[in-house]
């Protein structure tokens, strides 16, 4: 039987996300895909391209969660310091990985594999590569830490390539109900529903659409029958309040 | 003279961001606006609606950074636990704030201010309100922690309403050059440029557009003259490599 709960953290590495210059889209992808694999993303951190910050974040999260996924900072330039920081966090040397070097040598035309590009063959000692089908320079795994590129298309391809190495728990199932009542009108009944269903996590997300207040109510559980039971009671609650409701496609 | 460096952290609170169901847009807004005010966003954390996780994140970040901004979890429903968690982090009771109650009483029609909505008047003892011009229920500030809504339009209005309480350092200026060379071709010269200009932070962000590799090079500094000097050398570097280049509008 799979374990009840398998957890993960994401480390989004890069000044460009913190300065607001680039909007991160990797977090949403990771959250969704990990969920499907029965792994709960419990925390995400965005950290700058600063060695001490990255080393500390890697060590704090790898001790606390089953898996850690990093994105960003594995290219050829001086600000790409993730591999060196992960090596430091694990207390192992950063070494040239022969397999990674062979991949780069096969990819670049003669003379193009300069010293900067060759930095992309460096991994912490003992790391296993993660294939990059898009632009070849690989990511890597060491212990429970998976180091991936920041460019979303590359990150996603890397994740799919190493997903078979992950062991998930029971998959989290969810249902989402859109309701045309203001959040404050359903809050009391919702709190009571939550108290009766401790195996179901109930989230409430208000919105305003065409000038009218509404709320999206999300039920999540690893236990399908309990999820269904809570969903039926939620329907009754909304009907009792006279609200229109519809289950969202997921 | 303003201090050299004023720092901040953002705490994005909510299961819906970690599950990938909702994409966060508040981080990019905060990063950009804080930059303009001379405050550097040094870390962001996304934490679930779990008391222990929120309390720990508030206490770690408020000790480490000049300012902390939280988004999310201040509505009327059972999963809105941010105010209680911040009170716990500061070791003060959560109390009904008379000013906040008056705001809610003035807003809701008679009979509509139920117990759930009244929860939105609770703040940690000693907190100062942050006005909410959109849907009235206020945020609050306690110590160096600013607690705001998760809905982006409300969060942004709250931020603008309390921005005058923030004291920034020297504003960070930046210039961004788009270049039609692959990142690995400019990496060596860029590393040398970075070594000569320690007051300028040089970031390199590769992209692929219409099948061609390019790179966006970002220079950031609090010292305008050093920024300009680095920019001139960067132009010469790219010209020497035979690349086309253009400064982005910012």
Describe this structure in words.
- 2 copies of one chain form a homodimer.
- With 250 residues, chain A is an alpha/beta fold.
- Chain A folds into 2 domains: 6-165, MoaB/Mog-like domain (Molybdenum Cofactor Biosythetic Enzyme, Chain A), CATH 3.40.980.10; 173-247, Alpha-Beta Plaits.
- Chain A contains 9 helices and 12 strands.
- Chain A has helices at residues 15-18, 26-36, 51-64, 82-90, 98-107, 115-118, 152-162, 183-196, 224-240; strands spanning 6-13, 39-47, 67-71, 94-96, 122-124, 128-132, 136-142, 145-148, 173-179, 201-209, 212-221, 245-247.
- In chain A, the strands form 3 sheets. The first copy, chain A, has a 6-stranded mixed beta sheet, with helices on both faces. Chain A has a 4-stranded antiparallel beta sheet with strand order 10-11-9-12, with helices on one face.
- The first copy, chain A, is elongated.
- The two termini of chain A are 26 Å apart.
- The mean pLDDT of chain A is 95.
- Chains A and B meet through helix 1, helix 2, strand 2, helix 6 and helix 8 of A and helix 1, helix 2, strand 2, helix 6 and helix 8 of B.
Layout: helices, strands, pairs:
Two copies of one chain form a homodimer.
Chain A lengths: L5 E8 L1 H4 L7 H11 L2 E9 L3 H14 L2 E5 L10 H9 L3 E3 L1 H10 L7 H4 L3 E3 L3 E5 L3 E7 L2 E4 L3 H11 L10 E7 L3 H14 L4 E9 L2 E10 L2 H17 L4 E3 L3
Parallel strand pairs in A: 1-2, 1-3, 3-8
Antiparallel strand pairs in A: 4-5, 6-7, 7-8, 9-11, 9-12, 10-11
Helix pairs in contact in A: 3-4, 8-9
Give a short summary of the structure.
Chain A has helices at 15-18, 26-36, 51-64, 82-90, 98-107, 115-118, 152-162, 183-196, 224-240, and strands at residues 6-13, 39-47, 67-71, 94-96, 122-124, 128-132, 136-142, 145-148, 173-179, 201-209, 212-221, 245-247.
